[in-house]
Amino acid sequence: IEIFWASGACMAIKAKDFNLVEGFDSDFFAHMEEIDLCWRLKNKGKKIMFCYESKVYHVGGGTLNYNSPKKTYLNYRNNLWMIHKNFKGKTPLWLIIFIRLILDQISGLRFIFEGAPKNILEIQRAHLHYFYQIKKAQKKRENIPKSPLISMKGVLKTLLIWEFFIKKKYFFSEIKKNNG
User: Fold this and answer.
1) How far, in Å, CA of 35 to CA of 62, rounded?
2) Percent of the chain having pLDDT more than 70?
3) Which residues, 6 or more positions from 144, have their beta carbon under 8 angstroms from its beta carbon?
4) Which residues of the chain carry a pLDDT beneath 50?
5) What are residue 14's phi and psi, to 5 degrees?
6) Which end of the chain has the smaller Cβ count within 10 Å, N or C?
């Protein structure tokens, strides 16, 4: 089954394809580097496939604990970098980034309710680092061929945050039923 990205916890890739997109982006360090890699592969017309017969067991949090403020920082920063580098669509990039920044702030409220105020500061730090490094992200963007995101196979054609937080759909199979 064709998907948009494969988890780095269980991914096999041909060396020639890995080298074609210059491998993982070293600026990411950890978190979302495999999504960025797969997006760049998709931009080159490559397919990312899922083998549903396989079973993978992954003990998460090996690099950083789930509640780690550093994990929060890397997730929010790397997501902005990944979008900036790879996104192409009808909506202008600046608007996508603006919406993402607002959603990040809203998600920060969740950290308040969870009693994790350090994570809110890490969201702010991630945003500042993104803007501080925006020229670097833009230079990488210029060197990556891009295809419209919505036209790629495996892309969910709904807002995941809407499905999860508002519609309370916690499993992909519940969302997929209505989204081809």
Assistant:
1) 18
2) 96
3) 40, 43, 85, 86
4) 180
5) -70, 140
6) C
Record the tokens describing residue 135, joined without a space. 């020229």
Asked if residues 38 and 6 have their Cβ atoms less than 8 Å apart, the reply is: yes
Which tokens hold the place of 33? 């580097």
Alpha helices in 4-92 (DSSP H): 15-20, 33-43, 69-86
Contact 6, 48 (CB under 8 A): yes
Residue type, 55: K
The residues, ordered by sequence, that sit 6+ positions from 28 with a Cβ below 8 Å of its Cβ are 36, 74, 78, 81, 82
pLDDT of the residue at 74: 95
If one counts every other C-beta atom within 10 angstroms of the C-beta of residue 117, the result is 12
Q: Give burial (CB, 10 Å; 0-12/13-18/19+) of 38.
A: buried
Distance CA 17, CA 23 (A): 8
Helix H, strand E, coil C: the string for 114-157 is CCCHHHHHHHHHHHHHHHHCHHHHHHHHHCCCCCCHHHCCCCCC
* SS3 assignment, position 161: helix
